[in-house]
Write a structure and sequence with these properties.
This protein has 411 residues and is an alpha+beta fold. Helices cover 32% and strands 26% of the residues. It binds flavin-adenine dinucleotide. The site of flavin-adenine dinucleotide (FAD) has 40 residues, from helix 1, strand 9, strand 12, strand 15 and strand 17.
Length: 411
């Protein structure tokens, strides 16, 4: 088989939301680069499919018309106007949130199948600056004596060797970049297991445009979700901390199936529903582990950098923000023709500063005894107080997403 040799300053491995955002923003900054993905898009990714306001914020930075002209008029992006938080202890332990009618009429979230959303983003990669190689799997990464990287990849028709100054790991939870750096150690305290299954015909949902989550007594920090797609389909899933899974020798699939079949509140909704696929599992590397995300000639973004928000499980938004920030650090490095860690030493601070509150809350909550957590969850019956608190936060998030640009401090 022939070998294609490519020389470049920057090579991004992975074209999920984090890698494609890095590429799109690099192109806007006029920086040529290579981006590689093992998959051919459109491809699936196990996920709850929720696009939060962080995603909207990054897209608005790239171009406000993406949200207002494309997503708002595309039925594949279900506009989510509210949500409900339920406890399975008691059907009265629930709150339902809908913004006041005086609030701006932006959706709080979009729900979009990853097969569609990731392809939607990939199509925005600009071929003028990005040499995008899909269906190309990286199999080996070496640091050469001259400080450059040699990346070996394979696709159906040829072997590829890429030589670059800067390696960007955007290759998700099973990252070959992390393994090559000797950094892929899983700390169960900061890692979770998750499951997804698409269903049709789930009944008794609150509202066609609401997200619903359910907390159970046994594992109060884990939740089951039911999120509404088009055509009477729902994304149903569950996530639980790996520390608890290992400590109690649990089987995630069994817990999920028991909740759907036996829980008094949840099972009622699934009586006449049909699963559309087998239960699918994947890991969630949580930001609370505070992984080092940069070094001499390398940067990590998204799941490869373990940036999933530990309290909610949302990783697309933090991943895209990290891609946006990484692109600006990379552009500066390319302009200065320097790729050592000095140029990136504040990258980690910049990506974590938007996650620090969630990390502190999670680290506090995970140390609380189960009884106290259950008491907190049952306190959602104090609806007035909780709704007041949610309203304040949601209004701030909406303003930030639609009105505030992302600022980056390099020094
Ligand atoms: C069950 C579950 C539910 C979730 N729900 C949500 C949710 O509702 N909302 C949310 O915001 N987040 C959610 N997340 C988290 C979210 O899925 C991730 O945070 C997000 O996908 C991270 O994007 P990424 O671009 O960093 O990585 P990925 O989306 O994993 O993309 C990595 C890319 O790298 C490529 N790649 C990997 N290895 C190689 C290689 N060797 N060579 C070339 N390419 C390679 C892959 O093909 C892939 O395209 C959920 C996660 C799970 C497991």
């Amino acid at each position: 088989m022939s070998v294609l040799v490519i020389e470049t300053n920057v090579c991004i491995i992975g074209a999920g939301p984090s890698g494609s955002t890095t590429s799109i923003v690099l192109s806007k900054l006029g920086i040529s680069h290579v981006i590689i993905d093992a998959a051919v898009f459109p491809r699936d990714k196990i996920c709850g499919d929720v696009l939060d306001l962080k995603v909207i914020r990054v897209l608005n930075q790239i171009s406000p018309s993406i949200v207002s002209d494309e997503m708002m008029h595309d039925e594949n992006f279900v506009q989510i106007t509210g949500f409900s938080v339920n406890s399975t202890h008691n059907k009265n332990h629930r709150i339902q949130y809908e913004p006041k009618s005086s609030d701006p009429t932006f959706p709080l979230f979009f729900l979009c199948k990853r097969k569609y959303f990731d392809y939607f983003l990939v199509k925005k990669i600009n071929p003028q600056y990005a040499n995008f190689k899909q269906g190309t799997r990286v199999i080996k990464i070496e640091k050469l004596e001259n400080g450059r990287w040699k990346i070996q990849a394979v696709c159906a028709s040829e072997n590829i060797e890429i030589y670059c100054n800067l390696l960007v790991g955007a290759d998700g939870d099973h990252s070959i970049v992390l393994r090559s750096l000797g950094e892929r150690k899983i700390d169960r305290q900061h890692y979770a297991g998750g499951l997804r299954q698409y269903w049709k015909g789930v009944r008794g949902m609150n509202n066609a445009n609401h997200l619903e989550v359910f907390f159970s007594k046994k594992f109060p920090l884990a939740y089951l979700w039911i999120f509404p797609h088009l055509n009477d389909e729902t994304n149903v899933g569950y996530m639980l901390s790996s520390e608890l899974i290992a400590k109690n020798n649990l089987n995630l699939k069994n817990i999920f199936t028991d909740l759907l079949n036996e829980d008094a509140i949840i099972s009622d909704k699934f009586k006449n529903a049909l699963p559309l696929e087998k239960t699918m599992g994947w890991g969630l590397p949580l930001a609370s582990g505070q992984r080092k995300a940069s070094g001499d000639g390398w940067l990590l973004v998204g799941d490869a950098a373990s940036l999933i928000c530990p309290t909610t499980g949302e990783g697309i938004g933090p991943g895209m923000i990290s891609g946006y920030i990484a692109a600006h650090f990379i552009a500066r490095a390319v302009q200065q023709k320097q790729f050592n860690h000095n140029l990136f030493k504040n990258y980690d601070r910049e990506i974590y500063k938007r996650l620090n509150d969630d990390i502190s809350q999670y680290n506090l909550l995970r140390k609380l005894p189960i009884a106290l957590l259950n008491f907190i969850i049952s306190a959602i019956t104090f609806k007035g107080f909780v709704i007041y608190f949610i309203n304040k936060r949601v209004n701030k998030w909406v303003k930030t997403a639609y009105q505030k640009s992302i600022t980056i401090q390099f020094d």
